[in-house]
């Protein structure tokens, strides 16, 4: 007779899974620049940010920790490069804007809890599941989660900055499993990134669910994810857990 699966741990991504920015990055940057006397189009800043962020992440992955940077230095440099690419060549004028943005992105007022997030977390807790965060984020995440009222739901918060490895590196998932003292077969991860969250967790033997993010999912990716693993909204997680609990345990 097959044993029913009994999950013990759920690990969670945060950005675009539980929280999202209240305003697009370009709008936030343009607003703060205007307050410091700089007029820059939000669209230009948004486009520059995406390009600079991708380049910075390639050159100095995980906030450049292995290159001797701090996450704060990494972000301040990224803001400077973003404004430079958007046409602002005066680094001294941008410096106070960068400092203000770093501070403001630590504030809960900059973030919005996604619909259904809190109710889903409470529902998971009522089932006796342990919850934890595994996020490619920096040291500000603890305070952000406290500020939006979600920190109380989690046993621990593991950021890529603290762990030293970003998702999908298996070591960050193994560290979370070690902290929780559970085996991967009784743990599941929830997130909006196919590579970092869904595939990353499954590569270490965890179950995983892919949440519909802010960007349309590539049809080929969606086709490769079983329907029962795909969550168009967080409110569908609890039924998906019921379905998973009815499947045979991995022996």
From TrEMBL:
GO cellular component, one term: nucleus
Top-rank lineage group of the source organism: Eukaryota
Family the entry assigns: Belongs to the HAD-like hydrolase superfamily.
Protein name according to UniProt: Haloacid dehalogenase-like hydrolase domain-containing protein 3
Species, as recorded: Ovis aries (Sheep)
